[in-house]
Amino acid sequence: MYKELISKQKIFFNLGKTLSYDTRIKYLKKLKEEIVNNEAEIEDALYKDLGKSSGESYMTEIGPVLKELNFQIKHLKKFMKPKKVGSPLALFPAKSYIYPEPLGTVLIISPWNYPFLLLLDPLIGAIAAGNTVIAKPSEFSTATTKITQKILQNVFEDEYVTVVEGEVYETTKLLEERFDYIFFTGSTNVGKIIMNAASKHLTPVTLELGGKSPAVIFNDADIKLAAKRIAFGKLINAGQTCIAPDYILIDKTKKEEFITYYKMYIEEFYTDTPLENDLYPKIISKKHFDRLISLYKDEDILFGGKYNDVKIEPTLLDIKDVNVKIMQEEIFGPILPILTFEKVNEVFEYLSKEEKPLAFYAFTRNKEIKKRILTTTSSGGLIFNDTLMHFANNNLPFGGVGYSGMGKYHGIDTFKTFSHYKAVVDRKTWLDINIRYQPITEKKKRI
Ligand code: NAD
């Protein structure tokens, strides 16, 4: 069903149409211009899909996309440049170098939670690296797909970049085809399906997945600031963020203080009637909404818990038993369970039994504890005394480990992801030393 489309892209690629620096830079600049011209429409679409305010849409989607575009445009020449390396004596005379080449036709599959950012962020790197792209956005963020598709159609020919819309059936069909790379952002369960399909053609993959990212608050932490930064990270996009702090593990003696400040910041950020606040986003769909309600309806609610037909209040839960459902799956909504510990060792014991998370947030100023976390735990990213902000630094690689994903991107890493680094040796012919040739006699063996 998608054979013709993919073969058109492959022909375009094989003709070398995506290869030159001039082409890549021209299209990246055109893409930037088109995004800037359509900013208002993108914001409207994000409001329709997720109830995101224009400020939040710019800060978390349009802004980072433009930042990534600027970064790739600025550094492209350097990224494309072959890197000279030394050659051993046995190769003399020769030049050795590493040549970055594009992979070919790549598939990008994206989720609904940051529908503009998570489709375009990898796409920018794929174009910078000289590939053609088939992009499959989520079926849940239809308004954003529409404007993104319009933008991409205005910039690229179909043979260069195409958006394919679809649900599970269409994606399954797409995955039957042979791509040169698959970049997937979504849930861990679907990640397994993607990797399985990719293995049929030995297609390499990046899997940007999810999981339960803990926020651990130790007794030396600045509790007020921790509450503020956790409220920021948990409530942006109403908790529908892959790196949102999923739950809190806090020193028992600090629990009440944390709750007081967390409530205070909810009101400061979203007033005491967040459901009526236009700056507070909604849940993407009825299906996702119902799942969230079922996750917390039987739990002990410390704060919030109310909902209307599209939004759920910022909610705090008191959790005594880690075997409850909300502690077994990624929450992906504005509900924050609080668990307590009495001894620091309990934290490490608990986390050692959990899957490696996409992000680990640790609130402490204690050097020993920091060192222990750094050296004995594993997570996609580790942030001391803040949440989310590592995503905003494109000098850092972004990605998961274990069940939270494989591969990394942002900045130079996106370019690397979509490139093959070819080892090249250019042997000269003006001299040929006989030593390495047969017959390989005893005399030659250690030379
Ligand atoms: P999802 O896995 O349900 O869907 C992601 C994409 O896969 C969509 O385009 C969807 O159409 C497609 N898909 C769904 N089921 C499929 C199937 N059976 N076969 C083939 N394709 C299928 O994820 P979602 O609900 O859109 O997004 C939420 C998840 O994504 C969360 O787990 C979140 O943590 C994760 N996420 C990760 C990152 C990251 O950067 N690591 C970023 C955002 C979201």
Automatic annotation (TrEMBL):
CDD domains: ALDH_YwdH-P39616 (cd07136). One of its GO terms (cellular component) is cytoplasm. One of its GO terms (biological process) is aldehyde metabolic process. The keyword NAD applies. PROSITE patterns: ALDEHYDE_DEHYDR_CYS, ALDEHYDE_DEHYDR_GLU. Residues 18-424 form the Aldehyde dehydrogenase domain. Keywords: NAD, Oxidoreductase. GO terms for molecular function: aldehyde dehydrogenase (NAD+) activity. The active site is at E208, C242. The keyword Oxidoreductase applies. InterPro entries: Ald_DH/histidinol_DH, Ald_DH_C, Ald_DH_CS_CYS, Ald_DH_CS_GLU, Ald_DH_N, Aldehyde_DH_dom, Aldehyde_DH_NAD(P). Belongs to the aldehyde dehydrogenase family. This is Aldehyde dehydrogenase. The lineage of its organism: Bacteria, Bacillati, Mycoplasmatota, Mollicutes, Acholeplasmatales.
